Amino acid sequence: MSLALLDAAATAARLPYPALVHAVQAVLRDPAVQVPLRLVQPLPGGASLFVMPALDGRIAITKLITFTPANAGSARPTIQGDVVVFDIATGERRLVLDGPTVTARRTAAVSLLAAQRFAPQPAGPLLIVGAGAQGRSHLEAFAQGLPLAEVRIASRSAASAESLAARARELGLRTRVVSDPDAALAECPLVVTCTPASSIVLSALPRPDAFIAAVGAFTPGMVELAPDLVRHCARHGRVVLDTPDARHEAGDLLQAGLDVAGLAALADLPRGDGNEARTGPVLFKSCGWAGWDLAAARAAIG
After folding, report:
1. What is the pTM for the complete model shown?
2. Overall average pLDDT of the 245-259 stretch
3. CA 203 to chain CA mean position, Å
4. Alpha helical stretches, state H, 127-281
């Protein structure tokens, strides 16, 4: 069996968003999927090493990546590494996928699935806060999977914001760069926050029909959303987690003092769960999970 070593472009080509969303749904339904707790090893200088295994009845994967916040705004990506895919029956490596590409695309696919299920106004306009790799992947995924026509982009880097705006226009979307994301909340029922999560980027209260996918903060010490915003969503709408593991990792929720033990995860709330009549803003808190990387590996293998 030949081994395929895929770079970023080749990895992305194997992971179209419709196939990724389908693979994520399949992982959520598959009782053979096993996902051990990930290892997060702090490194000198504030970086972290992540070791994230997962398996099903056919393949086993491990994502091995570094997260280096100090690289934000530089030519070096904050996430670097690989996803290694093994054949369980033979023990052979089948694929080595580009880790940052897998992370960006599977995270956006999970957010898209949540938006398809829970967003009261899936046509937007969409506000993206953070114009890095996750901002781009969420833009492309939402443009493919939702009836979007308009997007607002906010970033602390003007150059990054303009670059992402150019990509949005290529996708046929009416696009505007905004300097105040809080002000944009009033006109955007779709929101994605995908920043380095070193400080609060949204403080205003969302619209009653808002859907917010918050993906930047994935440790207890990280935060993107003001506590009052988080508590407002919990009190007047719904907070949904990507997985139960987020109860221990979601800095936005923990720092807001939310009772996370009773929060539902994506797998607990399939389409048609009888809650469609619920009103109020929806906060989807995503912290990442090796099961999503397993879904990407399944999609890549075909």
Report:
1. 0.93
2. 94
3. 20
4. 133-145, 158-170, 181-184, 227-236, 251-255
Separation of alpha carbons 68 and 59, rounded Å: 29
* Residue 273 pLDDT exceeds 60: no
Q: Which of 29, 81, 25, 86 is CA-nearest to residue 55?
A: 86
In total, the chain counts a number of residues equal to 302
- Region 187-211: mean pLDDT is 95
Angle made by CA atoms 173, 195, 245, in degrees to the nearest 5 = 110
Measure the CA–CA gap between 8 and 300, rounded to whole angstroms: 13
Residue type, 116: Q
Q: How far apart are CA 148 and CA 6, in angstroms?
A: 31
Stretch 153-179: mean pLDDT: 97
CA separation, residue 74 to residues 130, 157, 159, 201, 302 (Å): 15, 11, 12, 20, 35
Average pLDDT for 154-163: 95
Domains of the chain and CATH, by start: 4-102+292-301 (3.30.1780.10), 107-289 (3.40.50.720)
Which two structure tokens, joined as six digits, stand for 233? Answer: 């969503």
CA distance 181 to 71: 24
Q: What is the pLDDT of residue 2?
A: 63
Q: Residue 281 and residue 118: Cα distance in Å, rounded?
A: 10
Question: Of 123, 228, 212, nearest to 174 (Cα)?
Answer: 123
Separation of alpha carbons 88 and 196, rounded Å: 36
**ω into residue 125 within 30 of 0, thus cis?**
yes
Q: What's residue 272's pLDDT?
A: 45
Asked whether 88 and 58 are in contact (CB, 8 A), the reply is yes
pLDDT (0 to 100) of residue 274? 40
pLDDT of residue 275: 44
| CA distance linking residue 138 with residue 20, whole number of Å | 13
CA 68 to CA 47: how far, in whole Å? 4
